[in-house]
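New here. Invent one.

***
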Amino acid sequence: MANLCPFANATPKSDFTLSESSIPTEIYAQFDALRARCPLAYTSQNSGYWMLTRYEDIKACASDTSNFISSVKAVIPSDPRGTRRPPLNTDPPVHTPYRTAIDRTLKAARLKRLEPLLEQHARREFEELVDRGHGDAAAQFGANFAAWVEVTWLNLSDESAPVLAKTAAAWVNAWREQNKSEVRFHSEKLYDMARELFRDRRESPRDAESDPASSLLGEIVDGQSIPEEKLIDTLRQCLVVGMVAPPILFGNIAHHLAIDKKLQNHLRQNLHLIPSAIEEFVRLYVPYRGFCRTASIPTTLHGRTINPGEPITMTYAAANRDADVFPDPHEFVLGRDNVTSHMGFGRGRHRCAGMPLARRALQIGLKVMLEMSSDWDINGELQYAKMPEMGIVSCPIRIIPA
């Protein structure tokens, strides 16, 4: 049987050791090897977990929230303090009211109204790099613009943007290093921001469809409001999730277009192609290696049995480069017929809640970069993310103004 793993029916032991490399080409090489040789593989690293690398397997796992649950852990390695926050670390029906409240503030009409303000923020942030003639597309432009996107969506004060950018970056770096004390220190700063926002909205509530904190405060479950500590946990999670992926994506996009001048110029001359290009960039450079579920029932796949309580990582990055779904998977192909089938935003009920906002922000950011420049080149050493993310976290570029 072609799909039967060579370790089928064996007692779980390490089929592989997850690459410690932060270089994406090396990470993808391991994903490709596992997908071909052992699509359901086990490692004893991080207390032991299974890994899926084929698109259809990952799609099935992510879509089945009954048999593969999120309430045990959502990522590997997990938060070093064991913290579990809604909605990411919850299952339906507990998960539902949090997502309902968040989704309410991300409707197309509201996002359309936010576009001019988001473009204004993007232009101001990229102008700083253009005026200097150089800067970091990821750690400066990407991170600062992402902070303004969060501030705009959450209706925070303008003074919050630089604080959020600095604090979120420090928290993410500490988390990647699994430094418990630093994670706790920076996390508490983010919690303070969430608490202050809820204090303000209790005193001065806003329209629930245009303000996430007000929307969460108004959500009723079984006739009662959601406990405040859960609301604070949710908002605290919102403050971070939108700060992790965009800088990495902008770093990867800037690097790709610095190498592929033909594509850079083609997009600059055909700005209407940016939405399609962004989808392909997200497919190619999804910044998360994957997310985690835990089996709730015995599950047999590729001749192996996953027992209840055992974690499974869904490597969205591997799924997005499965040649059975995306021909020439390691190549940028503008206008792929099935590009929106990518899992760059996840799949199922835990698909990224901020997907519509993220898409618009990425499109606006790339448009601004292209319009305000005539070219850019790499201008220093690239730096790459550590687990559980992957991709470029520092991309110095030299910019030729438009």
User: Anything to note?
Assistant: The domain at 24-401 is CATH 1.10.630.10 (Cytochrome p450). Residues 228-259 form the longest helix (32 residues). The chain has one domain: 24-401. The two ends are 57 Å apart (CA to CA).
